[in-house]
Amino acid sequence: GLGYAAADYRELPGVPGANARAGKGVVAALAEVPLVPADERTGGLILEQFAVLEGRAEFIAAVEAVDLDALPIDLAIGELAAAAARLFVAHGASNIAMLHAITGTSVLRLLVPYLDVDGQRAALGYAFQAAAAAHAVTSSAPGIPETVTAGRHTVDQLVGLASRSDDEHRIKLTEACLREHAIAPRPELLAAASNY
User: Fold this and answer.
1) Residue 190 placed within a domain
2) Please, where are the H alpha helices in the chain?
3) Is residue 185 situated within a structural domain?
4) In total, how many domains does the chain have?
5) Is the Cβ–Cβ distance between 74 and 112 less than 8 Å?
6) Quick check: is 153 in a domain?
7) What is the pTM of this model?
8) Is the pLDDT assigned to residue 147 strictly greater than 70?
9) Nearest Cα to 130, choosing from 184, 87, 71?
10) Does the structure show a pLDDT above 60 at 5?
11) For residue 10, what pLDDT is reported?
12) What span, in angstroms and rounded, lies between the C-alpha atoms of 189 and 88?
């Protein structure tokens, strides 16, 4: 669980928003994240995949250019989760790194009431940075698709699939996507949960 994950913590390069370009919200900044060339990517666990980003100036610049104040926190969370869902659907629903970009961003919504404004801003920055890293090392094309193919399951069907599953990724992805969809209905959220 969390203890296992925390045993191998590493910081990603760059300081989110350190050199913010006014008005460049999380989705616009995510769309401009440069992708690591395929021949430089590594397989393995997420942290192993992210290792190629260390010292990569163009990734650091993209992370630092995000304006974490461009949108209110609740809207920024929804926008970032939906953008991650579009990337997840477009670039392969077996992409565990991007799955975590959806779930990690959405869980921030549960923490916001317990964080002060500076904590909220920092947490949004880290969620953005993780989504940017996942995009940089796993996506097959730059940018973020505007739309994706609709999911094949209804909300009720997704709940049923998750409740009968022993796959923790399916369960947490479904929960996060349905939480976000209940706040702001978006087809990409249902598609992400459907396509896993």
Assistant:
1) no
2) 2-6, 26-31, 46-50, 57-65, 73-90, 96-111, 117-138, 155-163, 168-183, 187-195
3) no
4) 1
5) yes
6) no
7) 0.94
8) yes
9) 87
10) no
11) 81
12) 10
pLDDT at 186 (0 to 100): 95
Taking residue 166's Cβ as centre, other Cβ atoms within 10 Å add up to: 6
| pLDDT at site 8 | 67
Instruction: Report the alpha-carbon distance of residue 39 to residue 92 in Å, rounded.
Output: 18
Task: Answer yes or no: is 70 within a domain.
Answer: yes
Question: Do the beta carbons of residue 89 and residue 192 sit within 8 Å?
Answer: yes
Burial of 112 (0-12, 13-18, 19+ CB in 10 A): middle
Number of Cβ atoms within 10 Å of the Cβ of 91 = 17
Q: Please give the span between the terminal C-alpha atoms of the chain, in angstroms, as a whole number.
A: 21
Residue 37 DSSP one-character state? P
Q: Find the range with the poorest average confidence among 6-20, 69-83, 106-120, 136-150.
A: 6-20
Q: Is 72 exposed, middle or buried (0-12, 13-18, 19+ CB in 10 A)?
A: exposed
Tell me the three state secondary structure of residue 141: coil
- The DSSP secondary-structure symbol of 196 reads -
Tens of pLDDT, residues 133-145:
999 999 999 999 9
Residue reference for tokens 């549960």? 110
Tell me, what's the pLDDT at 4?
A: 57
Is the separation of the CB atoms in 146 and 115 below 8 Å? no
Range of the domain at 91: 9-147
Q: Band the pLDDT of 2: cuts 50, 70, 90.
A: low
